[in-house]
Amino acid sequence: MNSTKSRRKIVPAAVENGDTADKQDQLLLSSAICNGEDLGPFVRKVFASGKPETLLHHLKHFTKSKESEIEDVCRAHYQDFIMAVDDLRSLLSDVDSLKSSLSNSNSKLQNVAVPLLTSLDSYVEAKNKCSNIALAINSLNTCVQLMELCSRANLHLTKNNFYMALKCLDSIETIFHDKTPSSTLKRMLEKQIPAIRAHIEKKVSKEFGDWLVEIRTVSRNLGQLAIGQASAARQREEELRIKQRQAEEQSRLSLRDCVYALEEEDDDEIDGENGILGFDLTPLYKGYHVHQTLGLEDRFKQYYFENRKLQLTSDFQVSSMTPFLESHQTFFAQIAGFFIVEDRVLRTGGGLISKMDVENLWDTAVSKMCSVLEDQFSRMQTANHLLLIKDYVSLLGVTLRRFGYPIDALLDVLSKHRDKYHELLLSDCRKQFAEALAADKFEQMYMKKEYEYSMNVLSFQIQTSNIMPAFPYVAPFSSTVPDCCRIVRSFIEDSVSFMSYGGQLEFYDVVKKFLDKLLSEVLDGALLKVITGSITGVTQAMQMAANMAVFERACDFFFRHAAQLSGIPLRIAERGRRQFPLIKARDAAEETLSGLLKQKVDGFLLLIENVNWMADDPPPGGNEYVNEVIIFLETLVSTAQQILPVQVLKRVIQEVLSHISDMIVGALLGESVKRFSINAIMGLDIDVRLLESFAENQAPLLSESDANQLKSALVESRQLVNLLLSNHPENFLNPVIRERSYNALDYRKVVAISEKLKDQSDRLFGSFGTRGARQNPKKKSLDALIKRLKDAN
Q1: What is the pTM (predicted TM-score) of this model?
Q2: Cα–Cα distance between 25 and 674 in angstroms, integer?
Q3: CB atoms within 10 A of CB 109
Q4: Which end of the chain is more exposed for a tag (fewer CB within 10 A), N or C?
Q5: Over 70: is that where the pLDDT of 11 sits?
Q6: 252 burial class (0-12, 13-18, 19+ CB within 10 angstroms)?
């Protein structure tokens, strides 16, 4: 009902009052039809009311009303229709003439075109054949190229060049899969390409598996070689350091005969490409590239990491059948080689393993190594074993630090067991000291050759002169000294070796602390034990005292040696020097020697019983005992000065003289002497003078002041004799005079001895007066002194 032209919309006329509803519906329907509206509402309405006949009636009515309108239109245009029919009739005659003309032209065209059409058919047929041939050639060329690629892929497979074979397969799939004209060939490719890829993956995986097995052995050898290089570098450093110490020592001694040139050698490169630590990663990288080509890169990365992690876990296993001391090098070398390989893979693997994964593996390895070291160190009871493992671990640390691995945790474990190592070392030294002392015969060492002198004297700087002695040479010490010095030097070197390369740059204080403990506790205790339990003769005691003097020089060398090995300047080491650490043993040795000498002297002093205490005249040359004692002392000095230092000799003789003085005073106090005369005291005065003369005669050997100190050892007996021979003994009561002249006297002894001089016999004070004469003023003064001292008491 729609038209391209717009039409005027018909509006139904208003219904007059009184028209029926049926009329109105008819008008609405007519209006809707004329306007081209939808008649659906009308249809639904009549069906809803159940009167479809009404709608049909209205439609028929509308049709009849339009027929009259059509008739009117036909009448209006009839003339035009007649004219059109006439035109058509004239046109029909023209068409007939045209038709005949066309027919003639067609006949002529057919006659002319038949040969041409025949030629055209031949051309088309030839063209089709040519196209088919070109298509066949193109298909053949495609097949030839495909076959060449397939042949090349087979050749690469034969040569195990899997990466290039996969590239060929990728080219076949990318370029020729859709262009392959043969369905059979295409099916063959679809079947064989996945099979070839599976074969390559299997082959590469097998090669990678073989590499995983081989790399464990390679890693162990690699680790041993790398640690060996670190050890060699450390040895070169030690040699340079020794030369430097020798040069410093020569400079200290002002020796210019020899000059050392310190030349540092280049370290070997620990590099797999240019150095000597080469190892083959081709199977690994080949497998990685192949899996990248196969699109399985992540899976290969995971597979590699998991297998290497399992290998590392297997490397952590410590065999319970083999002592760790024998297997620790293999254990640590395996781990070192593992991480050297991983460092190379990290740097050159193109992302095969990440830095985070390597760090996680290293953290696991450090934790396990620390646990193993803690466990093994806790079981060890030999210092040397602990030192061997510590040295190897420190070399492991130096090796892996060069590859950027942190080793602080390992060094902390070593530092943690520092005290235990030194306690074990002290225990070993204690046994060695005991053995050395037990083997000593306490006789002076006899050296025939210069090398013996160098080995036993110069190496410990215990010589008293820089001039080389004549040989054979008799040393002032016994074999104990060099034996113990060797033990101490070994202790120092072992201690420095343990502390070196342990992450602690300044460790001299630690070495010094344990060295002092070794000397002041272990060596001093061992010497004390021998001195108190094994020394029975003067010769042995004198030799031990001489040894102690040499030990005093050796201790200075020990601390200098420790400072040199620790890299500390000698001036700093000497600035912190402390007292002689073997002072207890030295004092005990001198005390033992003095005690034995006193026993010898006591044998001579038994002759004091032969003194005539009531003699009428004093002995002109002294009493017998003192002559024997002086002969013994002179013999002692002539012998002892060969091995004892003058200060030791002075202290020993001073003790002996002091003992003699005490014995003289003790004899006057003893019960065996009931009374004595002034002549007896004058005889004692001669004895003391002889002893004082002996002391003064030692001045050339010692010094003037030392000789005076020896003389002062007789001060008590001298002051007592002076008091008894004094004309004014009451001066003893004067504090000033007493402090100046009698400060060594005990007033109780003075009273006891003076009473023996004050006897009822007229001969007791014969020198003061005669029988029947007036009392001697000296006696009167002495009596007054005794009375006042008793009153004071």
Answers
A1: 0.67
A2: 184
A3: 11
A4: C
A5: no
A6: exposed
Q: H or E element: which one contains 208?
A: helix 183-252
What residue type is 735 in one-letter code? Answer: P
Rounded distance, CA 746 to CA 668, Å? 14
Runs of H (alpha helix) within 566-645? 570-575, 583-605, 624-640
Residue 105 has which token pair? 């032209």
Which tokens go with 427?
């225990």
Contact 600, 537 (CB under 8 A): no
**For 174, what's the count of Cα atoms within 13 Å in the CB-facing half-sphere?**
7
pLDDT surpassing 80 at residue 268: no
Helix axes of 678-696 and 715-725: crossing angle, nearest 10 degrees: 140
Return d(Cα 27, Cα 517) in angstroms, integer: 136
CA distance 326 to 671: 76
- Collapsing DSSP to helix, strand or coil, 25 comes out as helix
**58 contact partners, CB below 8 Å, separation of at least 6:** 25, 26, 29, 30
The answer to whether 720 touches 698, Cβ cutoff 8 Å, is no
Cβ proximity of 335 and 314 under 8 Å = no
Beta bridge partners of 474: 446
- Kind plus residue range of the DSSP H or E element containing 307: helix 297-315
Map residue 447 onto helix, strand or coil.
Answer: strand
Residue 473, SS3? strand
Report strand pairing: 473-474 vs 446-447. Answer: antiparallel
Backbone angles phi and psi of 776, in degrees to 5 = -65, 135
Sequence-separated (6 or more) residues with CB below 8 Å from residue 325: 385, 388, 389
Q: Which two tokens stand for residue 48?
A: 């809803």
Q: From 452, 435, 469, 635, select the one nearest 539 (Cα to Cα).
A: 635
Tokens 């002894």 label which residue? 749
Residues contacting 413, CB < 8 A, separation 6+? 370, 373, 374, 377
* Closest C-alpha to 656, from 729, 596, 716: 596
Residues in the chain: 793
Q: Report the pLDDT value the prediction gives residue 130, as an integer from 0 to 100.
A: 92
Q: 720: which residues sit within 8 A by CB, 6+ positions away?
A: 665, 668, 745, 749, 750, 753
- Burial zone of 503 (CB within 10 Å; 0-12 exposed, 13-18 middle, 19+ buried): middle
Spatial separation of the C-alpha atoms in residues 222 and 218, rounded to whole Å: 6
Contact 606, 667 (CB under 8 A): no
CA angle 146, 148, 154 (to 5 degrees): 105
Per DSSP, 176 falls in state I
pLDDT band (50, 70, 90) for residue 5:
very low
In this predicted structure, what is the pLDDT of residue 17? 45
Reduced to 3 states (helix: H, G, I; strand: E, B; else coil), residue 446 is: strand
Cβ partners under 8 Å of residue 744, min gap 6 = 715, 716, 719
Of the listed ranges 75-79, 177-181, 369-373, 380-384, the least confidently predicted one is: 177-181
Which H/E stretch holds residue 80?
A: helix 52-158
- Dist CA 404 CA 339 (whole Å): 10
Separation between Cα atoms, residue 682 and residue 685, nearest integer Å: 5
Q: Which residues are within 8 A (CB) of 696 and not within 5 positions of it... i.e. 6 or more apart?
A: 707, 711
Residue recorded with tokens 């670190």: 230
Distance CA 377, CA 309 (A): 26
Q: How far is CA 304 from CA 289, 342, 619, in A?
A: 13, 11, 110
- Asked if residue 587 lies in contact with residue 613, where contact means CB atoms within 8 angstroms, the answer is no
Beta carbons of 417 and 386 less than 8 angstroms apart = yes
Q: In this predicted structure, what is the pLDDT of residue 286? A: 80
Q: Do the beta carbons of residue 467 and residue 556 sit within 8 Å?
A: no
What backbone torsions phi and psi does residue 54 show, to the nearest 5 degrees? -65, -40
